[in-house]
Amino acid sequence: MAALLCLVPTSLVEEIVVEEQKEKRMVSEVGEEEEGVTLEFLRKKMADFAKERDWCQYHSPRNLLLALVGEVGELSEIFQWKGEVAKGLPDWKEEEKVHLGEELSDVLLYLIQLSDVCGINLGQAALRKARLNAVKYPVGLDKEPLSKSNVGGGGHESDCNAHHS
């Protein structure tokens, strides 16, 4: 990360630091830190970000989708040569986890922007899809544990959220 910052003009680095400080103040002011950040909060944040920079003209559904795919590629590169990775990433260095968080955030933010310009309420769409999946895959349909051959990493349901933070 430090090597990358060397390529960024000092004024931009200062702007990023100032923005991070503003964000911390804003997050604590709106109570998002305690409550959890909402999709709507992120949607508004990204819409304001694009508007302030006059980037809305470039944010067509196609362009946002292609940017999203590019970010998914960057996310994939992190895992590319690691083989299977344990939940919670116990063997990862802190800077690797920070990088992963940044790439996951890029994917999430582009997805939120894409849904916004398409007029899709992502939260409602996700809840609807979860309900459809519950109907499609009812509890008790198949109680056989999944093997590693048909699901990567095993299928014990008690493991699902073991490292959820």
What would your notes on this structure say?
One of its GO terms (biological process) is dCTP catabolic process. Its cofactor is Mg(2+). InterPro entries: DCTPP, MazG-like_dom. Homotetramer. Keywords: Cytoplasm, Hydrolase, Magnesium, Metal-binding. Helices cover 62% and strands 0% of the residues. The chain is an all-alpha fold. It has a domain of 90 residues: Orthogonal Bundle (Helix Hairpins). The chain is globular, with a radius of gyration of 19 Å. The relative contact order is 0.09. The N terminus is likely disordered.
Chain-wise SSE layout:
Elements: H1 2-6, H2 10-30, H3 32-35, H4 39-52, H5 61-79, H6 94-117, H7 122-136
Helix pairs in contact: 4-6, 5-6
CATH-defined architecture of one domain: Orthogonal Bundle
List low-pLDDT spans: 1-6, 153-157
Distance between the termini: 24 Å
User: What integer is the average pLDDT?
Assistant: 82
The CATH top-level class label of one domain:
Mainly Alpha
